[in-house]
Amino acid sequence: MVVDRGLIALTGKLEVSGDIPPELLGKPLLLASNHIGNLDPMVLIAACRKIGVNPRFMLAGGLLDAPIMGPALKACGHLRVDRRSANVGEAMHRAVEALRKGGDPIAVYPEGKISLDPGMWPERGKTGVARMALGGGIPVIPISQWGAHEAVYWGNLSVGGWKDLLPYLTSWLRAVRKRPTFKVHFGKPVELSDLNAETMGDARRAHERIMIAITEGLVPLRLDEPDVPKFHDPTRPTTGSSPWRPA
């Protein structure tokens, strides 16, 4: 987190609004955020540190298997999930159990990937976060982010050599020079008390409420960019679509 704070301070300007209710601190808590760029987790960590929270993440297994970085991430308490395998349900169960034991909240991206919607509004996502919330009776704080997409390009699906790293490096160096503003808003807890994990359709209803709350928090962060982002990333496909895009 110390390294992260220095990286974000070097890369751009951080603006944080909203907060987490004091009565939820130190208790099981899920932080659900939109996903707009590769620097999102670092910006979110810096924003959480600013309000006195240390988040853990549910990370792809490949990151936890990486040399040097992997052991460090495990030591920090981040949780493993292999999205394409049969252990996704097991990972959700581990996350709920970890939350029930107390400690730091878990940060998750309901979309599961960086948004490819042309306007960069949240994509449909999946119900995993909602199922964890309902199954464990865990509050959800919606988080809206904007600006991190200007710091590091979407890049490549795979990195096979140094040339594949150039889009990330050149875009980051540009950000260091331009210093974009990273906006992070912590919304009010999503109201889920009337929903039940055992009731058919409630997981979908909970998911919709979470995504709508994230989108509503995103609107004021990008008032001057209501349609498409002003910043153009030539490497990011625009093949996605958002059902939550405001009228």
Brief description of this entry?
The protein is of the alpha/beta class and 247 residues long. Helix content is 36%, strand content 14%. It has eight helices and seven strands; from the N terminus they run H-E-E-H-E-H-H-E-H-E-H-E-H-E-H.
Strand content: 5-15%
Distance between the termini: 38 Å
Give the C-alpha Rg: 17 Å
Q: How can the largest sheet be summarized?
A: 7 strands, mixed
Quick one: overall form?
globular
- What class do helices, strands and sheet pairing give? alpha/beta
Number of helices: 8
**Count of beta strands:** 7
Determine the fraction of residues in helical runs and give it as a percent range: 25-40%
The ordered string of helix (H) and strand (E) elements is: HEEHEHHEHEHEHEH
Strand order of the largest sheet: 1-7-6-2-5-3-4
Mean pLDDT across all residues, rounded? 90
Which regions are unreliable across 5 or more consecutive residues at pLDDT < 50?
none
